[in-house]
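Holo prediction — zinc ion.
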Amino acid sequence: MNNYFRQEIECAPIEKIKEIQNEKLVRQVKRVYENVEYYRNLMDEKGVKPEDIKSTDDLHKLPFLTKADLRDAYPYGLLGTPLSECVRIQSTSGTTGKRVVAFYTQNDIDLWEECCARAIVAAGGTKDDVCQVAYGYGLFTGGPGLNGGSHKVGCLTLPMSSGNTERQIQFMRDLHSTIICCTPSYAVYIGEVLHKMGLTADDIDLKAGIFGAEPWTEEMRQSIEKALGIKAYDIYGLTEISGPGVAFECSAQNGMHINEDHFIAEIIDPDTGEVLPEGEKGELVFTCIDKEAFPLLRYRTRDICVLKHVNCPCGRTHIKMSKPLGRSDDMLIIRGVNVFPSQIETVLLKMGYTANYQIVVDRVSSTDTFDVYVEISEEQFSDTVKELTAMEKNLAGALKTMLGINPAVHLVQPGSIARSEGKAVRVIDKRKLIDNVQLK
Ligand code: ADP
Ligand code: ZN
């Protein structure tokens, strides 16, 4: 059975959604031009006036905003309302540099929480569910967003935040949590701790998990589903655009519907800025057409993915985005070859390893070194050195086939790679440190 939080919007005909977008876009561009000096200057530089934007077909005329603009304008330069109208600040995790802050009016919070509520309902959530929110709370948007969404659905909400995993599992059992929300890497860790406690998926009542905030693969989905006995759903978002819930997965579990009544999505060529036709892979760009306090237009997310309208069995009509392949700035260029951490994860899980791995890249005498550290299980760890060496060789071969370059594979002791309660640290690129030093 398909459930919706707001069926008339989630399943509206495509033409109706276009109509809503056109109307809101025209109003929003005018509002931003009048209220946000920073963006007005960008539009003036480009010679675009609000009157030039009559529908989404004119979107390409507007200037882009980038993370650099957000840092330039920090903290108040992109505010769309007086500060007295704002009720909340959240901040990015700072995965790729200095944090940026975003502001919210009460309407912005309501809109964001509704997006999260749509995601929870799409994952089968109802007012009879107990929803354990194990994303971090605080400035990070994960906890507060899903917490608010859970309230809107009417679930009994367990605001656990991340960490203290044994206690998470204890509460999960005592209070019969049926839905868990956290990062996928933390879900994997919860599965490991469950196992260590001598428990299995049969000892908990979870039926669904809503996982996002970092890239994860299909293989990781299957392993989480098995470990926790659940259906695992993806959720996507970013602080700049509101937080989690910008897009969410439905029962079809193959791509996320973007909440198009609030956000217009485009895919561009990251090098030229040209808008690409539907179905082509490129950088995702969002225009917020409802937000008041932090109304970003044409914000470049740096996330690489594909957008497509599909006839989804869930009945929703909103365009779907594929799992982000990684960020354009997450892509490693090692010895001239493009490498995404997600490719490595796919190979590892296919070959029966865990998703506990770390990639270390360095530069020695002008040549890139490329090391992949992979944890093995207790049973594998008791194998002979000869067997382990053969496994390393085998894995290096499979990675070479996937990536086109040869990594040095190191199988390491179970539990030796640091676990994350939030976003996992997959890549240590020591070359960047060198570049920074040279800049001085
Ligand atoms: P930061 O950019 O500092 O990590 P955020 O905490 O706002 O800031 O994280 C947003 C970013 O997290 C997105 O731009 C995207 O790269 C990543 N992300 C969020 N959800 C997902 C998801 N479901 N799959 C892959 N990546 C995701
Ligand atoms: Zn769907």
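READOUT: The radius of gyration is 22 Å.
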